[in-house]
Amino acid sequence: MVRYALAIFTSAFLLFGVQPLAGRYALPWYGGTPAVWTACMLFFQAVLLAGYAYAHAVASRLRPRSQAFLHLGLLVVALGALVARASWTGSPLAPGDGWRPVDEHLPVLRLMRMLAATLGLPFFVLSTTGPLLQSWFARARPERSPYVLYALSNAGSLLALLGYPFLVEPWVGRSAQAWGWAAGFVLFVLCVLACARDLLRRAPAASPLESSAGALPEALSDAPIEAPRPGVGRTLTWLALSTCASVLLLATTNKLSQDVAAGPFLWVMPLAVYLVTFILAFSRESLYERTPYSVALIASVVLVTYAHKEGPALGLGWQVLFHASALFTGAMVCHGELYRRRPAPRYLSAFYLWVSVGGVAGGVFVNLVAPALFNTYWEHPLALAACCAVAFAGLMRRPKEETVVARTQRLLRGTLLVGVALHLPLLVVTDQERVRFAARNFFGVVRVLELSPDDPKQHQYALRHGAITHGWQYIRPERRNLPSAYYTPDSGLGLALTEQRRWRQAQGLPTGLHVGMLGLGVGNSAALLAAGDDVRFYEINPVIIDLARGRGGFFSTLTDTPARVEVVEGDARISLERELEQGSRKFDVLALDVFSSDAIPVHLLTREAVALYLQHLAPHGVLALHISNQHLDLVPISLAHARASGLAAALVTVDSQGDTVSSSWMLLSPEPEFFWGATFTGGRAHVRRLALRGEPAYVWTDERSSVLQALRPRAEGRAAADPNVIDAPAVARPSAP
Fold first, then answer.
1. pTM of the predicted model over 0.90
2. Average predicted confidence (pLDDT) for the chain
3. Are 669 and 622 in contact (CB under 8 A)?
4. What are the TM regions of this chain, as residue ranges (predicted)?
């Protein structure tokens, strides 16, 4: 038993532990978008399906001796692939630079090819382990139940998922994780070798099983042995229920990731909740009761609707809790009804195979079908509505004996389910009457809204990415090119540009500036530029580029500005690295404003990224980081980078007023005198010169970074209250003689 237990536990731990690591490797090359994880999940689900199909075919068609030698041969090939990759690239899992995207055409398919080349075979081998080794155990020891092995597999999966964001990601670098995973794979191979030896010794002459039902827990084997083969209708029901749960899982992950940050912390939580519902529903039929779960589903849908209405103003903890509750109840309803429709034991392997097909179908729908059909995230409310429909269908199954009171209560719950399902479209149709343009692609949902049409002075078109406004432009001709939003003269970017002009004038240099902007939005920042300036925007989303260039006639700042404008499409960091190799002009001001909705692409805020930016700065240049965020405190991260690079730092905050949206900018410069300018002491901006006292608590690097480290309660003046931060008012430069 011990050898089987260790093999199955290790395989489940490695299977789920490698998923967030693979996502972290892929994330920086695709703009840090949440769609990276859903694309990875599609790959994992597809390979898991292939693994289940392999296990079913091998266990049902081959004799024990053939099974053992075939599987051991596959293990040797997979181990050899890991060794070869480690020898050629220096890492058993890291993709080489050859997989960097040269364009953004079909990113989902390219990402899946990369995953297949880097870890496809080892992941496939791991995915076969659960059903196959439980089948071996049932053959070798028919007198013992394999239930404990099923439980160990679930325990290993959950431990890997919950341990990664809290125990691994913040403390262990990606390279060390990859080597540790490879060492675990070697241990797994040795355990399977021991299991194969036990199978050959104890069941050498056994014939193939008709199915791999022996690999399943006793709780799954309580249906009559003699039963008719499931028909097409029943099979389609399995497929529909598993697809619905899979769509809800991926849609919930998308929703959470787009508003905070794409990363393991918000990847593994929904997957862990989904796995828990599968464990509970398939352990014992009594753990799923239609009445309490239908009531819980109604309540959770109401909470999700409230969270959507509140938007980013609602605390992150409440958002995660409300969405997790909806995912738990919805997936529990689907998996509970799925388990109640399980077939006889002899057909259970086919049943699990169709459940896996449903998981892949959900991934295909979210990654490929939904972006082509919808211009917003319709799959989230549709999946919740489908769960309500499943719960309603279950409630409508009248018990054999039912009192009038019980029947009334059942119908009332069914009516409430229908009511909340009909209101779910409100999750995506909010502000629909004001939407003038909407588009969706791999990088998210972009909408253009027409606001304040009854107020000529405030009448405007605004760009929204997810729940966050990324700039606007007034419609009246005399107000059309006014600086607004986060890019007013009092903002951190505005002060940096003004001070650079003043300094160049004092030095007798031309006042024209060379400006780099990571992130385009609607091009609002171009309103701060003057004749003689030139600006280069870096933007990964082609839809945003088209809108800023005038598509639809909504925005015209890029064409109206007197500055020379260039737009570089693609991930900003990859583009800057390419330009550094080719040689390019240094920037007087390099600004970073790259949030997607309210999420941050972490790879653009690491130590290596800041070092790249500094290589692009002119000697007296300034790096401006837009760090406004509803959930993350990015001041300590910015100051840690400043200290590591020997930079002076100032935090510029502006409150909402008139054309200005409240914003926080961190300005970094190798010249401490830069922050002595008189322009830094007037206007509506609050300017504080900051520095770290002592060593930083953490530093984000390409190898090691965690959003959890920045999840702190937001409060005005937090930086000044931090005992590790020295806060001093800006000092005016003495008047020149």
1. no
2. 83
3. yes
4. 36-57, 69-88, 108-126, 147-166, 178-196, 265-283, 320-339, 351-374, 380-399, 411-430
